[in-house]
Amino acid sequence: MKFRKKPVVIEATQWFKMGDHPAVRPGTITGLPLIDTLEGEHYVTPGDWIITGVKGEHYACKPDIFEMTYEASE
Questions:
Q1: Per-residue pLDDT of the chain (74 residues; tens, 9 = 90+)
Q2: Which DSSP letter does residue 43 get?
Q3: Region for residue 19 given its phi and psi (left: phi exceeds 0; alpha: psi -120 to 50; beta: otherwise)
Q4: Is 64 left (phi over 0), alpha (psi -120 to 50) or beta?
Q5: How far apart are CA 13 and CA 52, in angstroms?
Q6: One-letter-per-residue 3-state SS of 4-25
Q7: 42 bridge partner residues
Q8: What's the pLDDT at 8?
Q9: Distance in angstroms (rounded) separating the CA atoms of residues 8 and 26
Q10: Residue 36 class from Cβ within 10 Å (0-12 exposed, 13-18 middle, 19+ buried)?
């Protein structure tokens, strides 16, 4: 079977440096930037999009995947 994703408006911020999004923090061991997601800690790199999900959760998305998956909404 095939399924289509329901149209849901999300909030997203493209991240480039510390301070661009409040969910991004330095890792405790490496100091590398990361976010806490439902699946655990995930590192982010400059250009990644930080998405706030429908329940307020955060996750990172690479720019090429973001462009293929999302479009601007008013």
A1: 998 888 888 999 999 999 999 999 999 999 999 999 999 999 999 999 999 988 899 999 999 999 999 988 87
A2: E
A3: left
A4: alpha
A5: 9
A6: CCCCCCCEEEECCCCCCCCCCE
A7: 35
A8: 83
A9: 30
A10: middle
